[in-house]
Specification:
Layout: H1 2-45, H2 49-74, H3 79-100, H4 119-146, H5 149-180, H6 190-211, H7 216-229, H8 232-242, H9 263-309
Helix pairs in contact: 1-2, 1-3, 2-3, 3-9, 4-5, 4-7, 4-9, 5-6, 5-9, 6-7, 6-8
Length: 310
Amino acid sequence: MNMVQIPLAQGDDMGAAKEGGRSLSRYIGAGLIFLLASLWLPTVAFDSHEAQQSFYLILPSLWMAVFALCVLFVGGQHRGRMWLALGYIGASAALGLAFLWVPSVPNDAFESPDAQRLFYWHVPSAWMAMIAFGVLFVGSALWFVRRSALGWRLHVAGSEAGLATGLMAVWSGCLWGAAEWGVPWDWTDVRLNSFALLTLLALVLVLGRRAQPDGVESRDTFATAGLFGFVLVPLTYIATRIWQIRHPGPVIASGDGGGSLAPEMGALLGFAALSFTVLIVGHLMESVHLTSLEQRLDRLQGKLDVEATE
C-alpha cells in the first residue's frame, strides 16, 4: 500500500509544481508585456517630451505595485520566484529608463557622459552585494555559535547572492572604467580592490562548498571565512571617504553637502534600488528554499542507506 501511495503523492506534487510553474510563467509574460508597453506607449500617446518623461517612471512603478500585491496575496510556495520575477522586471525597466528617460550628465563632468548611464545598474548591484554579504555574516554567525540549520541556509544564500551581485557590480564597473578612465581597473584604488576581494571570498565559499563533502568541520571553516571576510564590508563603504583615488566619491549621503543628484536621476536611482532590493530578496528566499530541499534530500538518502545495510 505504501509503495502505491508514494508514487501517487509524488505525482500530485509534480502536478502542483507544474501548475505553479505555468502560473508563474503567466505572471512573468504579463509583466514583460506591460514593461514593453509602458516604455512604448508614452512615445505614441504624448507629443510633449516632459509628459513622456513623467509616464516613463509612473507606468513601471505602477506595475511594480500591482505585482507586489499579487505576490502578497497569491504567491504561495512560489513567492520567492515571484519576487525574483518582479525584481528582474524592475531591473530591466530601470536599465531601459536609464537610456530613454533620465537626462545625461554635462559633457564637462565626465570624459564619457553616456557611459554614466551604467550608474543605475552599477550602484544598485553594489547595494545588493552589501545586503548579500550582510546575510552571509548573519548566517555564518548563527551556524558558528548555535549550529543553526537556518543559519547555514542563510550562509549558503548569502554567499551565492554575494557572488552573483558582486560580479554584476564588478562587470558594470569595468565597463564604465574602460569608457571613463581608459582602463577597466586600477589596482591602486582601495574601493575597487576591497570589493573585488569580497567577490573573490564569495567565489571561494561557493566553489569550496561544492568541492568539499558537507559536514560540521567544513561548515565551520566556511562560516569562519564568512565572519572574518565581513570586515571588508565597512572598509569598502568608507574607502572613498578616506582614500579617494579613482573611484568616484559618494553621490548620496556624502555628509559634506555635496553629491546631490538631479530630481530625475534621484527618482530613477530610487526606483532601481527598490527593484534590485526586491530581486536580491527573491534570490535569497529561493536559495534558502533550495538549500532546505537539499538538506531534506540528504536526510532521506541517509535513511535509505541505513535501511539498505540492515
